[in-house]
Amino acid sequence: MTQPQPHDLAMRMAELARTVAMPRSVEQVLEDVTSAATELIPGADTAGILLVGPGGKFESLAGTTDLPHQLDELQMTFEEGPCVQAALDDVIVRTDDFREESRWPQYSKAVVEIGVLSGLSFKLYTADRTAGALNLFGFEPNRWDGEAETIGTVLAAHAAAAILASRQGQQLESALSTRDRIGQAKGIVMERYDVDDVQAFEMLRRLSQESNTKLIDIAQQVIETRG
After folding, report:
1. 75-123 per-position pLDDT tens digit
2. Residue 4: CA count within 13 A, CB half-sphere
3. Measured in whole angstroms, how far is the alpha carbon of residue 182 from the centre of its chain?
4. Distance, CA of 22 to CA of 210 (rounded, Å)
5. Residue 56: which region, alpha, beta or left (left: phi > 0; alpha: psi -120 to 50)?
6. Cα 142 to Cα 43: distance, rounded to the nearest angstrom
7. Quick check: 140 pLDDT over 90?
8. Which SS3 state, helix, strand or coil, does residue 46 take?
9. pTM passes above 0.85
10. Residue limits of the ANTAR domain (predicted)?
11. What are the start-end ranges of the E strands in the chain?
12. Whose CA is closest to 74, among 45, 110, 123?
């Protein structure tokens, strides 16, 4: 693969920036990122994203082929590997030749048998939280250079932005749902006990405190027992 020209890089990055702002699913944006990685970074034969979920659960997403998912599974099995290390610790994890890689002996031996000889992983940041890693793999050794790391870092930033936007959207939906349910419960209390909205909310709040139960759970109980 020939080196991408600066103009091509700028155009592709601008396209990715627009996709993050568009109303698309986070999975679609991540697929754009991994596709761009194989398009823009020489030696990147396949790419994927490893996310770290609640409780340390790992999720393999947006693979340009099935291979990244297979490699993620190997890391879960061996509890070692570059993608996990980038997700949890290092900012950039680079392997020029897995045949000579000693940091993850079991994983390295397995990927060489598959035909993967090089890897490049980038930590994904979402504000003060780590979401996972963007991972590139090559079938030839010694393919990565400083430019590959620079492009990968920018692509990882796009992926992290998409993940953060998705999480913020989920939090907003949850907050709106909570507000609506409390409002509905307050209306039921106002009707049932002939009180105003301030008194109704105070009744819900007091019940929450006295029963050591979350206000949203109290509101849900009121809604479920209506009538």
Report:
1. 988 989 998 888 888 889 999 999 999 999 999 999 999 999 999 999 9
2. 21
3. 31
4. 46
5. left
6. 9
7. yes
8. strand
9. no
10. 162-223
11. 46-52, 58-61, 92-95, 118-126, 129-138
12. 110
Q: Which amino acid would we find at residue 11? A: M
Length of the chain: 227
What percent of the chain stands above pLDDT 90? 33
Residue 40, token pair as written in the block: 């823009």
Q: What is the DSSP string of 142-172?
A: S---HHHHHHHHHHHHHHHHHHHHHHHHHHH
Element (H, E) at 39: helix 26-40
- Strand 129-138's sheet: what is its strand order? 58-61, 46-52, 129-138, 118-126, 92-95
Residues 100, 88 contacting (CB under 8 angstroms):
no
Measured between alpha carbons, how far is 64 from 30 in angstroms, rounded to an integer? 10
Q: Which amino acid is located at 215 in the chain?
A: L
Q: Report which residue type is found at 153.
A: T
| CA atoms 35, 40, 45, 51: torsion sign | negative
Structure tokens given for 131: 């979401």
Sign of CA dihedral 29, 31, 37, 40: negative
195 Cβ neighbours under 8 A, 6+ residues apart: 189, 203
